[in-house]
Design a protein that fits this description.
83 residues, mainly alpha, 5 helices, globular
């Protein structure tokens, strides 16, 4: 949910989204540091995570992931969504 909220707050800038995901899934794994590097306000992330928007984003990501997994027949797949 944290990832979904950060990506939502980044907006449609795919370069910054990719940098955040690379940071969060790779060398740093410190989501707060990665969000700060993406210039995302951590207070806004917390509002998103604790509010209804975070759940909404997470359910949307789950649905989109299920559609891809079903279509790919369990072939490892990486998906980038532009929210």
């Amino acid at each position: 949910m944290y990832h979904s909220c950060v990506l939502d707050l980044i907006g449609k800038n795919q370069d910054v989204q990719t940098e955040f995901v690379t940071c969060a899934m790779g060398y740093s794994k410190n989501l707060q540091t990665c969000a700060q590097r993406a210039k995302v306000d951590l207070k806004m992330v917390e509002v998103c995570v604790k509010g209804g928007r975070g759940l909404e984003l997470q359910l949307k990501a789950e649905k989109e992931s299920e559609d891809i997994i079903d279509a790919s027949r369990f072939v490892p797949t990486v998906s980038l969504f532009n929210y």
